[in-house]
Specification:
Layout (H helix, E strand, L loop, with lengths): L21 E3 L2 E2 H21 L5 H20 L1 E2 L2 E2 H13 L38 E2 L5 E2 L3 E8 L9 H16 L5 E9 L2 H12 L5 H20 L3 E12 L4 H17 L5 E3 L2 H12 L24
Antiparallel strand pairs: 1-2, 3-4, 5-6, 6-7, 7-9, 7-10, 8-9
Helix pairs in contact: 1-2, 5-6
Length: 312
């Protein structure tokens, strides 16, 4: 039972901090510029052919222009303004589809071992990625700044009392106020590959000496296989990206900030861990294709590491 002195916490957190400012009539400067440009084009068409064609024909010409301008100025898709989305689509169509992670000094033609073709082999432009390298300790070189990733779990405050909620929110607010650089919190849902877990449990059941425990393990493996076949299980991941800039000691500073973030969030009851190079590479690999049922719990090899097979 809740006591009468429990206080319901209230925290005003703006959800539209990145929303552009409204200039006039609830429209941003970008929207006003698009509509003004469309208006100038429409007025030019009216002045040029207004006296040469009937009014219905002129209206039929100007209406699609007005509709396109309104959709371009007010429309959104995938969280982007329509003009930015169309610009990104045009860049994607015009950009080459064959890219290679090579430096500018390396050749960008097909390698000698590639099968010969009748047509000349196309050139392969250099692939430009936001991250240049990932060190063994998990520091991601993003050019002007370094990034360290902190994985953490969520904290359920639904069953907490009002005072406990207020204490958790206050601790979280103190961590936010202590930040001295940009921090990004990414919450994503990814598919869970239950088939591999079921196979691992079934293989382990064969080594259990107790028949009852072995049967229980096999039943659990069958349950996981059936759940993976009938449902699409998801799990939620929370990654905190901490950044640091500078020319000297940048990697050490970003790791210090990551450890501070992990300590502050663990004080709230969350399980936290600063990711090393292999696990950071796993998180970034799964982020490129979130619809693939890939497991982010096992580390990947870094781009500059040698991969060897088992010894004979």
């Amino acid at each position: 039972m809740r006591s009468s002195d429990d206080a319901d916490p209230h925290a005003r957190i703006p959800a539209d901090v990145d929303t552009p400012d409204k200039i006039a009539y609830g429209l941003t400067a970008r929207q006003l510029a698009i509509l003004a440009m469309a208006g100038v084009i429409g007025y030019g068409i009216f002045r040029a052919v207004g006296g040469l064609v009937p009014l219905p024909v002129l209206v039929a010409v100007l209406m699609p222009l007005a509709g396109a301008a309104i959709v371009l100025a007010l429309g959104r898709r995938d969280g982007l303004p329509m003009d930015a989305w169309l610009l990104a689509a045009a860049r994607h169509i015009r950009s080459p589809k064959r890219l290679a992670p090579a430096t500018a000094g390396q050749p960008t033609t097909s390698p000698a071992w590639a099968p010969a073709t009748e047509t000349p082999p196309p050139t392969v432009p250099v692939l430009r990625l936001p991250a240049n390298a990932i060190s063994d300790n998990g520091v991601v070189d993003a050019g002007p700044h370094a990034v360290a990733l902190v994985a953490c779990t969520t904290v359920n405050i639904g069953l907490r009392t009002g005072n406990e909620r207020a204490a958790l929110i206050g601790s979280y607010g103190r961590w936010l106020n202590s930040l001295s650089g940009p921090v990004q919190i990414v919450i994503s849902a990814q598919r869970v590959d239950l088939s591999s877990h079921a196979q691992r449990i079934a293989e382990g059941a064969e080594t259990i000496a107790n028949p009852a425990l072995a049967d229980a393990a096999r039943d659990y493996a069958d349950f996981l296989d059936d759940l993976a076949a009938r449902r699409d299980p998801l799990w939620r991941t929370v990654i905190v990206a901490v950044t640091a800039t500078g020319d000297q000691g940048r990697d050490t500073e970003v790791l210090r900030r990551a450890e501070h973030a992990a300590s502050a969030l663990s004080a709230l009851g969350a399980q936290t861990a600063v990711l090393d190079g292999g696990r950071a590479a796993a998180v970034l690999t799964c982020a490129t294709d979130p619809y693939t049922p890939a497991d982010v719990t096992w580390a990947r090899a870094l781009t500059d590491g040698a991969i060897t097979g088992p010894e004979d």
